[in-house]
Amino acid sequence: CIATFRLGTLLGSRVLGHAATALLMVNETFLARSGLLLPEVMVALCLVLAVSEYVVGRPWTYILAALCALWTKESAITLIAALSAWQLVRLSLSKGPTEFKEHLKWLGIVTIPLPLAASFFLVQKGQLGWYFYPEHLGMITWGLKEIGYKAKLVFTAVFEGQGMVILTYAFAIAAPLLHRKMPIHKRILTALLFVTAIKVLFGRWSLPGLPTLFVPLICFVAILITHIVPVEKENRRIGDLLGAAFLFCIAFWSFTSMNFYSDRYLLSMLPFVAVGAAGMLHAAFNSSHKQIAPVVIAVSALIVMSQIGKDERIGDTRLAYSDAIEMHKERIAFCEDQALLDERFYVSFMDIAYMTDGEAGYLSQGRAFPSVSNSLDDGTRYAFIGYDSPMELRDELRTSGFELLRRFTCGNAWGEIHYRPTPP
Description:
This protein is mainly alpha-helical. The chain contains 19 helices and five strands. It has a five-stranded mixed beta sheet, sandwiched between helices. The radius of gyration is 25 Å and the shape is elongated.
């Protein structure tokens, strides 16, 4: 939160810093992730710090923050790609040899963390025999249909879900249209480009094959030229911040669409969406009505806050995850009380950890369940099913001779234990 506030103040106002931070703080994904010891919070922090240091022109602290981000998660490479792309844009806008050399120097600086980060992967290769986690490498998606599907999930989660759609319309359509310093044709073009990108991505303006993915990318590049580059000419610092945030979101969005997808990975985008939205609104209204940008963001934050928990989803990007934890504890405690520890269980991947790792905090008697698996076979006597199970699992269990033994509920989280009286 402090790092996001600091990044927001680089727009030229502490009020904008507070507004962007408030928008982040009421996001349910951020609230849920902030209480879990997982690397997404650390990588998001390092990315925000890296962009802050880049914008203010401190090379050594930028390198340190970007290096920490890369050592935390490989997905941080999207920031290096985004800043490199922005530096190439700045090179093309250089006015004279002095400015060209300065931009070229920073193009080199933003890439320095890459060879430094390679040391970790070399050590990993020596210790484990691989550079990148093989299981996740096997989950990389190359099919256009799968990439497009995940790209839609990212947009829905970050820009539409939990009431964010109002803010998205404000900074993507209203801000360009009302930006008085821009020529009217550029205002209309920018708004149309945003609309076209999303309409094509979601198939509302249907295109075959590759254009479904490439047209949105082309639109975003055009937006960079028509809207963000002119801002950079007016105010270098705000332009750098908007350019870095915009290109990072596009790069991270693309990276996520090709890899194993999870809502929690999107945490890194949230501070940049908050600050980027503040920056685009500020750039549009600063010359006439300075209070519009923070007011729009404050109203958006209130709307986002009012939607916490409204989608009734259960998962580690929702506050209702605490209900899920209680349900899992009650279900496992029931099995312990009924002396079922030595029975064979069919459970989810996460339940295996809950039932075998005493440090996870789910085993009240201190003894692990020796026979748990996420494969259903003829020797399985008990099976767990719940809010996170595939829809067809209940029918599969019924066909295999299982019957409902007990149901557990806590808030919107539910789980059941099924048993098979007579193995096949």
